[in-house]
Structure of Cutinase family protein:
Amino acid sequence: MKNRLAVLVTSVLIAAGLSVALPQVASAASCAGTYRIVVPGFGHGSDAGGFYNFDQRVGYSAQLTSQSAREGVNELNRLVRDQRNVCPGQHVRMIGHSEGAAVVHIWVTANWQSFGNVNAVLLADPKRAPEGHGSGGLAGQPGTGIVGFPLVGVDNFYGNVPTVTICTDDIICDSTAPSGWLGYYPGTNHINYNFDANAYSDNGNGQWFYGQFFPR
């Protein structure tokens, strides 16, 4: 009854030559090209954390807790599913930095069998496994177990999802980085990454470690 009344009132107003403000319906990103979704790191829950040229940003609390990481994973999952429902054949490139990289890492490990046509780029991933180069990220260090699953622990299990990890003299992704904690301070190595979402390919698979690429 209410819907019929609303239609009737709208029709009367239009017939009278009066403008009607209709509610705006949110739409998904374009189905053209690659859907670029970014996940910012710790402390950047309400902004893009330096990323640009992207289609969607994952908004979450961005705190150093496993609850926050799960929140980010759930929101990433929702956004990917929503876009995939509208554009089923579109490629999805997800890029995360620091805790955001951990969020993407966790998502890939949990969902690689459920989603095809996706790839991941992990910048300064605290869950980075050494893969023969350097040391693992901080999530694998003694004492981090108090943070809890899934943020704690390192691995390089991405299923069949092409995944690139990038780490350069940054204690977050290489716990024995020569710079130590100095590399984490603002303006130093922890933000010395390319935050242009267009800078990465849809099929990279391996790791960049201190400027050298090692294919996986």
